[in-house]
Structures are given as C-alpha cells and as structure tokens.
Amino acid sequence: MDGAVGRGEMVLRGVVGVLVAWVVGPLLLFDLYMLLYSLPAVVGAGERICEPGLLGWGTCWRPEPRLWWIVSAGIVLPGVICVVMAVRGFRRPGLWWPWLMGSMGLLVAGAFATSHIL
Length: 118
Fold this sequence. Notes:
66% helix; membrane; transmembrane
C-alpha cells in the first residue's frame, strides 16, 4: 500500500472511533467540569478556615482537596493530549487506537481522582 488508509480500514476506524467517543466524550466533559467546579480548592482556605454550619457544626478547610485537584489535573491533561493525538491520527496510516485506549484509561483514572476532590 502507498501509505493511504483503505476503505475497509476507515470503516473499522469509524466504528471503533464512535464507540470509544461515547465513553471518552462524557468522561472528558465530567473531568473538565469537576476540575473547574472544584477550582477554589486550589486557592486554599482564604480568610475563614471554618465556615459556620447548621446547628453549630462547621466545615473546615483541609489541604487534601488541593492535592487531589493537582493529581487529577495531572492525570486529565495527558488524557486530553491522547484524545487530540487520536483525532489527529485518525485519517493517517499507522497505529491510532493506542491513543484512544490511553485516553480512556487516563480519563477513567481522572474521574476517580476528581471524585475525591470534594
């Protein structure tokens, strides 16, 4: 072959791409939403370390959310890079599916990490 992708291979790539996009798309949106939603965890406690709560109970700031945010951002960023590389290499000859599988694994790990932020 002269380096072009054949019609049968493009159909296979399309089917696999759509199936993986059903998983990667929502994971990516969830991870990015949770990172933006929990962005105040990076800033820290601010002026008030403890907020008054209901019936005298208060919620106090802990340093763990900042650590979980940094870990999850460090996992989601390579996942986003893998998604971009998979989309870039979709029509090119060569191995493209490891990027999709890598992005799926990283985004699942990122979803686990972002669920521990708050």
